[in-house]
């Protein structure tokens, strides 16, 4: 029904953004809401409308590649929209695609809601079917993959990032392991930067 919406981001929460267009504020669930900014400039958000018996939800993505991978993921048995958002929250679709193509179950089970059975199902269902998508994914540089963040930590921004990570399905126990590293990094100042670095740590500590 929707391909994308161009509008103003008027609100950001740990779980969703509000995208206003023509006087209507759309609640849009996103992998990392803090990738967006509240400003008067219009932004394009690629949309997937998910319809259930009890609800209709809008999911939004900064890139077309993210949305198409999301649609592939929710076709896999055992993966719902929330799990798919958690997988995409790292902001690196190419890593997920590579893990599927290389049958790297160890990487896939690091995401909330993905156990060994689900990881194997992802590989069985999607391996060999993502080639065209991979061609359009921009591979990040090593610097993008492992940014050298430091820590004069900002409590409010850190708290917002922790809430967003909980919304994605990470447990308090998992988050407690990485909080000291987040606080110790002097260059982390925004919620988005805390989110990105926290996800890097979480994917390397399980």
TrEMBL record:
Q: Which domain of life is it from?
A: Bacteria
Q: Which terms in the Gene Ontology molecular function aspect does this entry carry?
A: ATP binding; four-way junction DNA binding; four-way junction helicase activity; hydrolase activity
Localized where? Cytoplasm
Note the SUPFAM superfamilies from the entry. Answer: DNA helicase RuvA subunit, C-terminal domain, Nucleic acid-binding proteins, RuvA domain 2-like
For this record, an example GO cellular component is: cytoplasm
Residue numbers spanned by region Domain III? 153-206
* Main localization, broad class: cytoplasm
Residue ranges annotated as coiled coil are none
Sorted UniProt keywords: Cytoplasm, DNA damage, DNA recombination, DNA repair, DNA-binding, Hydrolase
Which Pfam family, any one, appears in the UniProt record? RuvA_N
Using the record's annotation, list all stretches that form the Helix-hairpin-helix DNA-binding motif class domain.
Answer: 71-90, 106-125
Q: Which SMART domains match?
A: HhH1
Indicate whether Nucleus appears among the record's keywords. Answer: no
Q: Name one GO biological process term.
A: DNA recombination
**Which family does the record assign?**
Belongs to the RuvA family.
NCBIfam families (UniProt xref): ruvA
Domain annotation text? Has three domains with a flexible linker between the domains II and III and assumes an 'L' shape. Domain III is highly mobile and contacts RuvB.
What exactly does this protein do?
Answer: The RuvA-RuvB-RuvC complex processes Holliday junction (HJ) DNA during genetic recombination and DNA repair, while the RuvA-RuvB complex plays an important role in the rescue of blocked DNA replication forks via replication fork reversal (RFR). RuvA specifically binds to HJ cruciform DNA, conferring on it an open structure. The RuvB hexamer acts as an ATP-dependent pump, pulling dsDNA into and through the RuvAB complex. HJ branch migration allows RuvC to scan DNA until it finds its consensus sequence, where it cleaves and resolves the cruciform DNA.
Subunit notes for this chain? Homotetramer. Forms an RuvA(8)-RuvB(12)-Holliday junction (HJ) complex. HJ DNA is sandwiched between 2 RuvA tetramers; dsDNA enters through RuvA and exits via RuvB. An RuvB hexamer assembles on each DNA strand where it exits the tetramer. Each RuvB hexamer is contacted by two RuvA subunits (via domain III) on 2 adjacent RuvB subunits; this complex drives branch migration. In the full resolvosome a probable DNA-RuvA(4)-RuvB(12)-RuvC(2) complex forms which resolves the HJ.
Protein name as catalogued: Holliday junction branch migration complex subunit RuvA
Query: Which species is the source of this protein?
Result: Ureibacillus thermophilus
């Amino acid at each position: 029904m929707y391909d994308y919406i161009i509008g103003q981001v008027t609100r950001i929460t740990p779980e969703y953004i509000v995208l206003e267009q023509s006087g209507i504020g759309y609640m849009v669930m996103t992998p990392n809401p803090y990738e967006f900014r509240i400003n008067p400039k219009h932004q394009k958000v690629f949309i997937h409308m998910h319809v259930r018996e009890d609800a209709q939800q809008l999911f939004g993505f900064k890139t077309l590649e993210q949305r198409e991978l999301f649609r592939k993921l929710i076709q896999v048995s055992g993966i719902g929209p929330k799990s798919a958002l958690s997988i995409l929250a790292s902001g690196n679709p190419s890593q997920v695609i590579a893990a599927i193509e290389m049958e790297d179950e160890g990487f896939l089970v690091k995401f909330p809601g993905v156990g060994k059975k689900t990881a194997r199902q992802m590989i069985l269902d999607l391996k060999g079917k993502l080639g065209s998508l991979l061609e359009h994914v921009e591979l990040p540089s090593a610097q993008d993959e492992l940014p050298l963040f430091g820590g004069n930590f900002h409590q409010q921004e850190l708290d917002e990032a922790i809430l967003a990570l909980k919304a994605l399905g990470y447990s308090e126990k998992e988050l407690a392991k990485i909080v000291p590293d987040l606080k110790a990094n002097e260059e982390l100042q925004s919620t988005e930067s805390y989110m990105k670095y926290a996800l890097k740590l979480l994917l390397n500590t399980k």
